[in-house]
User: Fold this.
Amino acid sequence: MSTIYFVATPIGNLEDLTFRALRILQEVDVVLAEDKRVSRKLFDHYDIKTNLLVWHQHSKDKDWQRVKDLLLQDKDIALITDAGTPGFSDPGGKLIELVKNELPDVKISPIPGASALGAMVSIAGIALDKFSFLGFLPHKKGRQTLITKIKEAKQPMIFFESVHRILKALDQLSDCDKQLIVGRELTKKFETIYRGTAQEILDTLNNDPQQVKGEFVVIVNK
Assistant:
C-alpha cells in the first residue's frame, strides 16, 4: 500500500528541516512541490535527488490523475509547500480530500516541523490556550467584516499578512487599543518581533520603510 506524506519544510532558515523530513524526502518516489524553483533551493542545500512534480492550488484534474496513477502503482509520495506545514493556507487540504475520496486505502501521514503559526505562538507571551486562526485576510470582499470581528473578539485572533497589505491591516486596526504581537521574516536574517498597539507598530514601520518587507504573522490579543 502506498503512502502520501505531508512534509513540513523550513519557513526561512534551511536548518529547520527535521531529520525525519529529510529522510522521507530522500526515500519517496516523487515529491509534489508548490513551486519547483523554490523547492529546488532546499533540495540543492541537502543534495536531495528525488524527482519533483508540481502541485498547487490551481492544479487541474490531469494533475490529480498523474498523482493518482503513481499511488495506484504503489509509489510513495511526499507533498511540500513553498514554506512551512502543508494545510495552513495552502493546497494541502485539497489533495487529502481527493486521496480520501478516491483512494481510501492509501495511507496519509504527517511529517511535522516548521510552522509560522507555531513559531509565533511560541513566543507570543500571552495566554493562547484558545485562539482563532484566520489565515490570510481577503484582499477586498469580506475584509472589513473580518477586521470588525478581530476588534470585537473575546479571544486572541491570529492572521497572516503579506508585505503588500500589512500597513493597510494595521491602519484598519489603528482605532483599536488591543495589544498586538507582529512577527516579520520569522527564522530569517532580519527576523523582527513588534509588540504594541496597531498604531504604535504602524508608526514604527512607517518610520523605517526597510522594515516593511517579508511575510507577517499578526496576533491580536483579546
